[in-house]
Write a structure and sequence with these properties.
It comes from Pseudarthrobacter quantipunctorum. The protein is an alpha/beta fold. Helices cover 47% and strands 18% of the residues. The protein binds ligand C2E and calcium ion (3 copies).
């Protein structure tokens, strides 16, 4: 049986049949992964464009499995959502991010941490309690924690979602709408939802330095965000020329491989080299 498992883990994932087998193995391995600390968080710097400083990071979940190798969140988050494990996984992520933010604060290099929240965590109705308990457990000021939600997160039960987000924001936690420019993006929801920030999806940013239409599109989203008092973050910035366009458009924050890849905490520099670039 053990041999069979190993074989599945090594099967070519581009083959549909083996992708299915890998998904099945992911589903079976997930509970063990949570129990055995196979999860870690990596952190990707969020660069303040005007100053070049990196006062915040986004926490991104990583899973290294002995059989499956590195399992990407795009492979296992939806599995965790379907199995209901997302609630335990999500609580672990929030708690781990708070613990790390506390370590940074204690070391004299405070960084706010942004945590991705699944639609199902918001739908469960206890997100405020889960977050406040973690803050309390680690003695972390709310100003050092932010969350990122997606629009589908909000629309399952809009009144409940709005009430929870309002409570979080009034306690000092930033709430950004993630992946703006994909699937369900609508300007009216943007106006309705309690938010402090907007993250423009990588697909939006990819061509801003090569295609004037996409630059115009981003400019108009940026103008709407500004009118609504939202801080703007551009995702997936890979080229200096993209950063130049974003700076010209007045975008607040840049995130992407140009600045840094997601890194384990030990590999994040204390003072960011980019702090001298602006
Ligand atoms: P996301 O929230 O949109 O996160 C950004 C993704 O883009 C990350 O992928 C990041 O590694 C990648 N990225 C950042 N900069 C660049 C760039 O310049 N170029 C390219 N090509 N990619 C870049 P990752 O870490 O694989 O995460 C994928 C998705 O999985 C995330 O997308 C998020 O939706 C989800 N996810 C990750 N961690 C968690 C978590 O703790 N909880 C939940 N619910 N979802 C998570
Ligand atoms: Ca995100
Ligand atoms: Ca995103
Ligand atoms: Ca994205």
């Amino acid at each position: 049986k053990h041999e069979g498992k190993s074989r599945l883990g090594r099967i070519d994932p581009s083959q549909p049949a083996s992708r299915f087998a890998r998904q099945a193995l992911i589903r079976r391995s997930l509970p063990q992964a949570l129990a055995s600390k196979a999860f870690t968080l990596h952190y990707q710097p969020l660069m303040d464009i005007p100053t070049g400083a990196c006062p915040a990071v986004e926490a991104l979940l990583r899973w290294q499995d002995p059989e499956l190798g590195a399992v990407s969140p795009s492979e296992f988050i939806h599995v965790a959502e379907h199995s209901g494990m997302i609630h335990a996984v999500g609580r672990w992520v929030i708690d781990q991010a708070c613990a790390q933010a506390r370590l940074w604060a204690d070391a004299g290099t405070p960084r706010a941490v942004s945590v991705n929240i699944s639609p199902l965590q918001l739908a469960a109705g206890n997100l405020v309690t889960v977050i406040h308990e973690s803050l309390q457990r680690h003695g972390l000021p709310a100003s050092l924690l932010n969350i990122e939600i997606t629009e589908s997160a909000a629309i399952t039960d809009l009144p409940s979602a709005m009430a929870q987000l309002r409570t979080l924001i009034s306690s000092g936690i930033g709430v950004a709408l993630d992946d703006y420019g994909t699937a369900y993006s609508s300007l009216s929801l943007l106006r309705e939802l309690p938010l402090t920030g907007l993250k423009l999806d990588k697909s939006f940013i990819d061509t801003i330095d090569t295609d004037s239409t996409s630059a115009v599109l981003v400019a108009s989203v940026m103008a709407s965000a500004r009118a609504l008092g939202l801080r703007t973050t551009a995702e997936g910035v890979e080229r200096e020329t993209q950063l130049e366009v974003l700076r010209d458009l007045g975008c607040d924050t840049a995130q992407g491989y140009l600045i840094a890849r997601p890194l384990p905490p030990a590999e994040l520099p204390d003072a960011w080299p980019a702090e001298t670039r602006a």
